[in-house]
Amino acid sequence: MPTLAILIVISIMFYFFYKVKSFRTKAPAEKSWINTKANIAIGNFLLFFGLNQIFIYYNSTITIIVGSVFILLGLANIILGYRAYRYYLPIAIEEAAQNKER
Predict the structure, then answer these.
(1) pLDDT at 1
(2) Which residues cross the membrane (predicted)?
(3) Residue 17's pLDDT is what?
(4) Domain region containing 90
(5) Is the full-model pTM beyond 0.85?
């Protein structure tokens, strides 16, 4: 499935982009907010990788189990990352407004 391979590459690129952006950010709330985006991106990577494994090697039981574990871990990262994203977004906006006033 070339579509899943493209999504895998895009999601890992977003992960590295957000990790580098996080290292370059000084503000703590903004850093946490960007890290949650990286968490969502790595969750997408795990999800797409697990789906790709299941679609390509669906004959092996072990591959289906490992792919299912990747899918579950990816979904957990996406869900928990989104919750953290919603939590840190207003804090990061407030922090940016305070830094702008200075």
Answers:
(1) 62
(2) 6-24, 36-56, 62-82
(3) 97
(4) 2-101
(5) yes
pLDDT for the residue 59? 82
| Predicted confidence pLDDT, tens digits, the chain (102 residues) | 688 999 999 999 999 999 999 999 988 999 999 999 999 999 999 999 999 999 888 888 899 999 999 999 999 999 999 999 999 999 999 998 988 876
Helix axes 28-56, 2-24, angle to 10 degrees: 160
Q: For the chain, how many structural domains are there in total?
A: 1
Nearest 5°: phi and psi at 2? Answer: -65, -25
Q: Which residues contact 92 (CB under 8 A, 6 or more apart)?
A: 27, 29, 30, 32, 33
CA atoms of 35 and 18, how far apart (whole Å): 7
How many Å apart are CA 19 and CA 24, to the nearest integer?
Answer: 9
